[in-house]
Design brief:
The protein is 47% helix and 17% strand. The chain contains eight helices and eight strands. Strands 2-5-6-7-8 form a five-stranded mixed sheet. The longest helix has 21 residues.
Amino acid sequence: MTAPISAPLTPYATLLGFTRYVDRTGPTKASFVGGLRRQRASRSGFNPHGQFVKALKADIAFHTGGTHLAQVVDVVKPRWRPLYQALVPGATAWLHSLGEPAGVELAQTRDALAMLGDLPIKINPHFGIRYADGRAEAVRLHFDEAPPSEEALLAALHLTARHMDAVLPHAEPVLVDVRRGITHRMPDNAKPDEIERWLAGEAAAFRAIWSAAA
């Protein structure tokens, strides 16, 4: 009996995966895409930040200013406790930077699918926030030990802004460096057309590497 032939894996990236890819140079790009492809084929992957995001959203929704964040360190599995302990101070500082807790509401965001040439990229903010004055932000969280690079910031903010009508209409995309409690926004001098051309080239290279790894 002939073994079934598995369908080829279509090139695909999440926003996190693609921004980490553009942050790399030389041979590390190929090894990174190969790792993404293997992970996709095995359907593996685990998000250790799930309970953390849930606690942060609860503090926003219930205007509790960091109470849920402080508690989640004690309830998360022991192996993740050092990670959460490193994240909580910056996240709490960011919460306080938003102003009076009662003046900020949690807003529902939706995922969107961006196309860069033939490469689909899943745009998935962690949540949205809405201020008392009507302003809204679609928030993507950065958990890494190193601060986000300029390339990663431009890619994440540009692609999210490009699909904001689907994600959270009339909102501004922001990337929050959780460990340092810093909010990053699109620079005033950013040139969207140049960013789009740069990302299109990166996406074409991503597809080529993905196919070569088959």
